[in-house]
Each structure stands twice: as C-alpha cells, then as structure tokens.
Amino acid sequence: MNSESLMQKIKIDRIMNNSIVSVDSSVSATDAAKMMEDTDVGAVIVLENGSPIGIVTDRDFAIKITAHSYPIDTPVRRIMSSPLISIDSNSDLWVASDLMSSRNVRKLPVIDDDKVVGIVTSSDIVKHIADH
C-alpha cells in the first residue's frame, strides 16, 4: 500500500491532538504567549463571540511582532493568521497534508460544527506515517 492510499484511509480524528488552547481576540499577545508557555503548545486558536476566527503560532510572535514593531500588549487579533484554515475531523490525512502544503501552514485546527475539537500538525502527520 502506498503512502497516498494509507493516508486516505486514516481520518484526522485518529491523530489530532484534543488539547486545545484558545483565547478571545482581545487578549494581549503577552497573555497569549504566557498561556502557550504554561500549556506547552505552539499555537492558540483565536475566538470571537465563541467562534474560531484565527490562529496565533509561535512563528506569528517571532515574525509579526518583530517585523511590525508591535508592542507586546497588542491584542492577538492584530497578529493572528486569518482567515482560519481548518479541516473537519472526518477528513483524511491526505486531504489535511494537501491543504497544509498548498496553504503553507504547519498547524491545522480541526473544526466540527463551528467548534474547535482538535488540532493536527505537520509533525503529527509525519510521525503517524513513520509509525506505519
């Protein structure tokens, strides 16, 4: 079985991480960074009125705050990546990897019925393929 066939059989809900950290869009970059450090995650999902609207990754902090000289208390809505590129939990790994590659993202929130239920990263996909 080739890797494409294998990836088409495996659904995202089998490899996604269910530990989600989310913040309101008005939270400061400092507070979001502290949450990321405390929970040992590389991204937080940004919510507005309870709905996911963006993502802030460690890369966003490094590049956007530095490149634009934003103060560290800048609301995360100014540094988030948006629109949010996401996938549903019933999609397969092939769709996820194709989406990540074509949109040049490393972290893909998993959203079902406008609710974040997980996150899958490029590392998760590579690890899963390597294990199988």
What can you tell me about this protein's structure?
This protein is α+β, with helices and mostly antiparallel strands. It has a single domain, classed as Roll (CBS-domain). The chain has 5 helices and 5 strands. It has helices at 3-9, 29-39, 58-68, 93-103, 122-131, and strands spanning 22-24, 43-48, 51-57, 107-112, 115-121.
Helices and strands in order:
Blueprint: H1 3-9, E1 22-24, H2 29-39, E2 43-48, E3 51-57, H3 58-68, H4 93-103, E4 107-112, E5 115-121, H5 122-131
Parallel strand pairs: 1-2
Antiparallel strand pairs: 2-3, 4-5
User: How is the largest sheet built, in terms of strand order?
Assistant: 1-2-3
Going by CATH, the homologous superfamily would be CBS-domain
Q: Any idea of the CATH topology?
A: CBS-domain
Quaternary state of the chains: single chain
Q: Main attributes?
A:
132 residues, 5 helices, 3-stranded mixed beta sheet, CBS-domain, 38% helix, elongated, two-stranded antiparallel ribbon
Quick description:
The chain has 132 residues and is an alpha+beta fold.
